[in-house]
Amino acid sequence: MKIRLQDGLPYVTASLIYQGQQLSFGNVLLDTGSAGAIFSTDKVLTVGLTYEPDDRVHRIRGVGGAEFIFTKQVDCLAVGDLRVNDFQIEVGAMDYGFDIDGIIGMDFLIQIGAIIDLAKLEMYPASK
């Protein structure tokens, strides 16, 4: 999977499947400093992924501050050919002052056994 640099930060294209509907994101930050994968509430609404009363809500903190998010199980989260089925994502406002669709964090990267090759700007599984 190719990584592209934008303003010095690594971005990838990702997609998720929720209740059989696929949604692609072209502007997803690859962030080894983030524990979880999070996507913008506004972006996931198009596949009907919304907050429901039984969803878990909690507060996350990062360099940009704190926000409330809810968690949701998706059928699949993929970055290129690297995919994890039955994956739990976080959904939040993601009002960070710049346009971003989501963040791929360590939870996904560990599950796929990601190797991030910055010399080649590629990400691939350890088994490659």
Set down the secondary structure blueprint:
Layout lengths: L3 E3 L2 E10 L2 E10 L7 E3 H4 L12 E6 L2 E15 L2 E11 L9 E3 L1 H7 L1 E4 L4 E4 L3
Parallel strand pairs: 3-8, 4-7
Antiparallel strand pairs: 1-2, 2-3, 2-6, 4-8, 5-6, 6-7, 9-10
What does this molecule look like?
- This protein is mostly beta strands and 128 residues long.
- It has one domain (4-125): Beta Barrel (Cathepsin D, subunit A, domain 1), CATH 2.40.70.
- Helix content is 9%, strand content 54%.
- The protein contains two helices and ten strands, in the order E-E-E-E-H-E-E-E-E-H-E-E.
- The chain has helices at 41-44, 106-112; strands at 4-6, 9-18, 21-30, 38-40, 57-62, 65-79, 82-92, 102-104, 114-117, 122-125.
- It has a six-stranded mixed β-barrel with strand order 2-3-8-4-7-6. It has a two-stranded antiparallel sheet with strand order 9-10.
- Strand 5 and strand 6 (65-79) form a beta hairpin.
- The longest helix is centred in the C-terminal third of the chain and has 7 residues, at 106-112.
- It starts with a strand and ends with a strand.
- The model has no long low-confidence stretch (mean pLDDT 91).
Q: What attributes characterize this protein structure?
A:
128 residues; mainly beta; Cathepsin D, subunit A, domain 1; six-stranded mixed barrel; two-stranded antiparallel sheet; globular
What is the oligomer described by this structure? single chain
| Overall tally of structural domains | 1
What's the story with the biggest beta sheet?
6 strands, mixed, barrel
Tell me the number of strands. 10
